[in-house]
Amino acid sequence: MSVLVQISLGSLLLILCLLIHIGTQVWLVRRLRVHRSTLEHPSGRVVFLACSMVVAVLLFSHTVHLYIWALSLWLLGALPGHEEPIYFSLVTYTTVGYGDVTLGPAFRVLGAMASVTGILCFGLTTAFLVGLFPRIIVVSNADEDTKPPGT
C-alpha cells in the first residue's frame, strides 16, 4: 500500500474517531444540561455518579476507536487473526508501543496514524475533564460550605 493511500486512509480513520469523540462529548454536555437542576445542589453521591458516568462514557468512546483501528487493520490484512489487530491497536493508540507486534512496511504509516488518533483523543478527553470536573466539584463544595455547622 503506498504512503499516500496510507495517509489518506489513516486521515479518514482519524477524522472518524475524532467525530465520534467530539460527538460523545457534545452528547455528555447535553445530558449534563438536562440534569442541571440535580447538579445545582448535588450530594456527594450525585457528584460521584456524574463524574463516573462521564469517565465511563469517554472510555467507551476510546474503546470504539480501538475497535475501528483493529477492524481496519484486520480487513486490510495488515495483521492476522483477531487478537493481534486488537492488541496492536491498543498499544499503539495508547502510545505504549511495546514493539512485540509490528506492521510491515506496507502499513507502517497507518500505525503512526493510529498513534496520532490516540494522542488527540486522549488530549480531548483530558481537556474535557479538566474543564468539567471543577464545575461539578466547585458547585458541590460551595453547597457544603453554606450548610450550617453541625448539619
Mean pLDDT: 89
**Number of strand elements:** 0
| Portion in strands | under 5%
Sheet of most strands: none
Distance between the termini: 68 Å
* Number of contiguous helices: 5
* Structural class computed from helices and strand pairing: mainly alpha
Radius of gyration: 20 Å
Helix content: over 70%
Low-confidence stretches: none
Q: Secondary-structure element sequence? A: HHHHH
The general outline is: elongated
Can you walk me through this structure?
With 151 residues, this protein is mainly alpha-helical. Helix content is 78%, strand content 0%. It has 5 helices and no strands. Helix 1 packs antiparallel against helix 3, helix 1 runs parallel beside helix 5 and helix 3 (44-75) crosses helix 4. The radius of gyration is 20 Å and the shape is elongated. The model has no long low-confidence stretch (mean pLDDT 89).
